[in-house]
Amino acid sequence: MTPWLLGLTGGIGSGKSAAASHFADLGVHLVDADDAARWVVEPGRPALSEISQRFGDAILLPDGTLDRSTLRQRVFQDPAQRRWLEELLHPLIRQEIQNHLSRATSPYAILVSPLLIESGQYRSMQRVLLIDVPLELQLQRSMRRDQASEEQIRAILKVQTSREERLRHADDVLLNDRDPDWLRSEVKRLHNFYLTLKGGKP
């Protein structure tokens, strides 16, 4: 039977990676959209040679891998270049995600994506799980984890989809405002519920 697809998302500092790893520990097949975005630009993949042809070898590190921060600066300042890059990479990332999800043998499979809502990826999911967190806790966790200032984190939050928008698209919400053991037990509870679903629906 084909596994149904669960989209797992959450803002910066929400704990979505921790939640995802608990699902993986329970034997659920998962793909991280951020990993897929890295895989498509690995050395030897066509996308990397197209990017270096367009931007020159300055965007490659000495070992031949992509210098992400240089590329980010280049496209950040030039909307036309950013569009070109998105048009090149988005279909490849979609295909990469599809390939990895198609190998799933668990009853359901998970796509972990911080941009699940913004990118429209949620449309190809049968169900959406939002890892939610109160703003103050989100700021504290992100500042501690990324060694960043409150201003930097607020700037990131500003460009991410609002919490209200995420809540609007979520079928399930896990409020991650307690300790790690509680998160693990909540993931286990959701997992047991998900095992009862057919095609992501009760």
Describe the 3D structure.
The protein has helices spanning 16-25, 33-39, 46-55, 68-76, 79-101, 135-146, 150-159, 163-169, 180-194, and strands at 4-9, 29-32, 108-112, 127-132, 172-175. The chain is of the alpha/beta class and 202 residues long. The protein has a 5-stranded parallel beta sheet, sandwiched between helices. Helix 1 crosses helix 9 (180-194). The longest helix has 23 residues, at 79-101. It starts with a strand and ends in an 8-residue tail after the last helix. The mean pLDDT is 93.
Summarize the structure.
Pfam families: CoaE. The chain is α/β, with parallel strands linked by helices.
Based on the model shown, name its key terms.
5-stranded parallel sheet, Rossmann fold, dephospho-CoA kinase activity, about 50% helix, 5 strands, about 200 residues, alpha/beta, globular
Point out poorly predicted stretches.
none
Class by SSE composition: alpha/beta
Give the amount of beta strand, in percent.
5-15%
CATH fold node name of the largest domain: Rossmann fold
Report the CATH architecture of the largest domain. 3-Layer(aba) Sandwich
Number of strands: 5
The strand order across the widest sheet is 2-3-1-4-5
Give helix % range: 40-55%
How many DSSP helices?
A: 9
The whole-angstrom Rg is 18 Å
CATH level-four homologous superfamily name of the largest domain? P-loop containing nucleotide triphosphate hydrolases
Topology order in helix (H) and strand (E) letters? EHEHHHHEEHHHEH
Reading off the top of the CATH hierarchy, the class of the largest domain is best stated as Alpha Beta
Instruction: Determine the N-to-C terminus distance.
Output: 17 Å
